[in-house]
């Protein structure tokens, strides 16, 4: 049996290009004891891949998460047809030893919990790493209270849209920042945010001052850059900032990162609590987080949206489109 996989043929310079990737096919070896053979059903494209891929060697398999089906097993805890989630990379099949397969986020391979009639693809989004990032990162770091003014950058993405809904459910006043008028409409009409702005077409500082004249309590930062500098200067004293990502700089050349306004005066004079995080901090609560988000879906208030590409050969296109901001909600590829 063979597998197809994407390998890295060029390190990215700016926005990744289709020519940076190549499909190859190679045979799979026979299973050993305590190993399983899985076949990809859904593969995720996420912003972190852009940053972490720079650590790969040319010829390495491109990284990423999958929901996959077990098609052969020599492991006592995994059976044929089990659905599993793991950091398997951009490949159609792979032989793995679940106990030794590890990654920087969710750790070992795990079985997708019973999610009823919902699509298994949600194991890569609202019921996976992005969902746990939103749940734990927002609640544990921002510690929202009813009536707090919460602002979220990258608010129409997989993590941002999830945070926004939790904030609304907690009784907060929620402001979303995004990069298109279509996404502004989604945030206002579908997610019922209190305000939303396209940072490309408004004066962000004055817009925020109009809707939050007394300042911002919590900021969930997905993008970094000058947007975050503007927001942090409008925080209330002792405001809380959860730094999740820096999408604004992911496609920049390391030698020419974007310049932003100095932040120390705002942090010091306002006594801001600014905390970066990686969701691996809550690895020991991984399934707890999935089940909590599942309960929110069943309660009827947590909505999700997927931006689906069909076909393994669409992975690079889906990845590039996501980095350009083409998706609303979670970008996934159905293999």
CATH class category label of the largest domain: Alpha Beta
Q: Tell me the series of helices and strands, N- to C-terminal.
A: EEEHEEEEHEHEHEHEHEHHEHEHE
Tell me the number of helical segments per DSSP (H or I, 4 or more residues long). 10
What is the CATH fold-level name of the largest domain?
A: Quinone Oxidoreductase, Chain A, domain 1
Per CATH, the architecture of the largest domain is Alpha-Beta Complex
Structural class: alpha/beta
Kindly describe this structure:
The chain is an alpha/beta fold and 335 residues long. The chain folds into two domains: 2-125 and 304-334, Medium-chain alcohol dehydrogenases, catalytic domain (Quinone Oxidoreductase, Chain A, domain 1, Alpha-Beta Complex); 129-280, NAD(P)-binding Rossmann-like Domain (Rossmann fold, 3-Layer(aba) Sandwich). Helices cover 27% and strands 25% of the residues. α6 links the parallel β11 and β12 (235-243). The two termini are 17 Å apart. The relative contact order is 0.15. The model has no long low-confidence stretch (mean pLDDT 94).
Concise synopsis of the structure shown:
The protein is of the alpha/beta class and 335 residues long.
Sequence-ordered SSE layout with sheet pairings:
Layout: E1 2-8, E2 21-27, E3 36-44, H1 47-52, E4 66-73, E5 83-86, E6 93-96, E7 110-111, H2 129-142, E8 149-153, H3 158-169, E9 173-178, H4 181-190, E10 195-198, H5 204-211, E11 216-221, H6 225-232, E12 235-243, H7 247-250, H8 264-269, E13 273-276, H9 286-299, E14 306-310, H10 315-323, E15 330-334
Helix pairs in contact: 2-3, 2-9
């Amino acid at each position: 049996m063979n597998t197809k996989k994407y390998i890295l043929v060029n390190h990215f310079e700016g926005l990744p290009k289709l020519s940076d990737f190549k499909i190859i096919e190679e045979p799979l070896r026979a299973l050993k004891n305590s190993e399983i053979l899985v076949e990809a059903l859904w593969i995720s494209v996420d912003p972190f891949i852009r940053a972490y891929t720079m650590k790969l060697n040319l010829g390495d398999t491109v990284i990423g998460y999958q929901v996959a089906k077990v098609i052969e097993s020599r492991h006592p805890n995994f059976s044929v047809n089990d659905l599993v989630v793991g950091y398997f990379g951009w490949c159609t099949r792979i032989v793995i030893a679940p106990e030794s397969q590890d990654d920087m986020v969710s750790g070992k391979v795990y079985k997708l919990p019973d999610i009823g009639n919902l699509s298994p693809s949600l194991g890569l989004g609202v019921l996976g790493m992005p969902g746990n990032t939103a749940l734990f990162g927002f609640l544990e770091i921002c510690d929202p209270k009813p009536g707090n003014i919460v602002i979220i950058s990258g608010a129409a993405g997989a993590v941002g849209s999830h945070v926004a809904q939790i904030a609304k459910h907690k009784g907060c006043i929620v402001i979303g920042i995004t990069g298109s008028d279509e996404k502004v409409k989604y945030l206002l009409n579908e997610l019922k945010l209190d305000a939303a702005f396209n940072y490309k077409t408004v004066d962000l500082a004055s817009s925020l001052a109009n809707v939050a004249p007394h300042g911002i309590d919590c900021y969930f930062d997905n993008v970094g850059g000058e947007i975050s500098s503007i927001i942090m200067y409008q925080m209330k004293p002792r405001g809380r900032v959860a730094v999740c990502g820096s999408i604004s700089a992911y496609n920049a050349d390391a030698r020419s990162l974007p310049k932003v306004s100095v932040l120390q005066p705002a942090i010091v004079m306002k006594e801001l609590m600014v905390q970066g995080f990686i969701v691996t901090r809550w690895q020991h609560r991984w399934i707890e987080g999935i089940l909590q988000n599942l309960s929110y879906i069943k309660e009827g208030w947590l909505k999700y949206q997927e931006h689906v590409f069909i076909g393994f050969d669409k992975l690079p296109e889906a990845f590039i489109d996501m980095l350009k901001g083409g998706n609303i909600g979670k970008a996934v590829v159905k293999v």
